[in-house]
């Protein structure tokens, strides 16, 4: 019997390697045949894993099992970098639970397409042509196909470097405010990752309210959120060519321009609407009011941090916040919404139509009609999701329409600002918001990429006939 043992071990060893090879070939084939489906599969699997981890007794500070609907909601909110919560991040979760949430934010911040491309690289050591096309589309054609692998590594490196810099700035301030070094270290790391990934989770039970006039803390958070909302393609352009605007890509020009316009307009509008509101900023100095308005404008487009109770804002301010949340940030970024480039393309199309131009132009470039079709599809899908989600939440609760729409748009746009409706909903309502967060993070990106890769040529053309519009 002993003489047959080595052969049996060798057979088992070979069978193990054959199994690994089969798994590698399956993932490789899946990645190259349907990259978008692989991206959805990966994020679904990651969410389920984090749900299981957050359900463990060791994840809660009380040592008890967290209900599955609360654990699932928190996992989706973290991986989809939203920031909506149904339990207090600071008091309900243990250090292990908060660490799981932070890891979910970091993984989710990389994005579906980047993560799918990285998985294909790790498993099969290469990307097929369709996989490279998908990764290139995810990064807005920021590089040639042959450089995609290097570019994906740069994406991760850039994320880590920015988050480390933010943490280095925040940690000393928390220490000066009296926190032990280990707690200041944890809070600095948590806030840096949460800010750059536009997540909005806070490890303090009272959030950022105690620091509402502390620019040492608020400024790094605003810088981190703004950089994260620009997207990796824009950040890489800024790193490569700096302030030389003429050398920027059209995508970078549109993203930065529209982001700054929304930032300035949002600051003035929010400040004007809340200036005399005694429940929010009326009793503050002019300087502090300005800080609040600027901070709110940065955060409403995806950051999710807040200095005032959202229930205390005027109804008109909530409507303004709805619009800014729906707009979101840049494509291939950690922000949500329909994206600022979508808004820019549609605005340029309206201007071209008003002028009677046949082409849509910007900065000496013509925008293809296929891009406008994708923009229309993204806007229509976003509006449909908000409409359906609002209808379902209204059916499941007795809350007023303005509060429901606010929470639904915050979930879809992965912002994280809340009127505390998420925590008050029954489990069915929490699953609806979870689906909206997932669809908001995955849907628009996957739809845009799928449409970009599904261009087919036809050998015939029907006669033109113009229907009546308007």
Descriptive account of the structure:
- The protein has 470 residues and is mostly helical.
- The protein is built from 18 helices and two strands.
- It has helices at residues 5-33, 35-55, 68-79, 95-110, 112-124, 129-138, 148-176, 181-196, 215-230, 232-241, 250-274, 286-303, 315-327, 340-355, 369-396, 401-412, 421-424, 427-453, and strands spanning 360-362, 365-367.
- The longest helix is centred in the N-terminal third of the chain and has 29 residues, at 5-33.
- Helix 12 (286-303) packs across helix 13, helix 15 (369-396) packs across helix 16 (401-412) and helix 16 crosses helix 18 (427-453).
- The chain has a two-stranded antiparallel sheet with strand order 1-2.
- It is found in: Cell membrane.
- This is Potassium transporter TrkG.
- The chain crosses the membrane at residues 38-59, 71-93, 99-123, 151-171, 215-242, 254-273, 323-350, 371-396, 431-453.
- It is a multi-pass membrane protein.
- Pfam families: TrkH (PF02386).
Count helical runs.
18
- Radius of gyration from CA coordinates: 24 Å
Morphology:
globular
Biggest sheet: strands, sense, closure?
2 strands, antiparallel
* Count of strand segments: 2
Query: How far apart are the termini?
Result: 86 Å
Strand content: under 5%
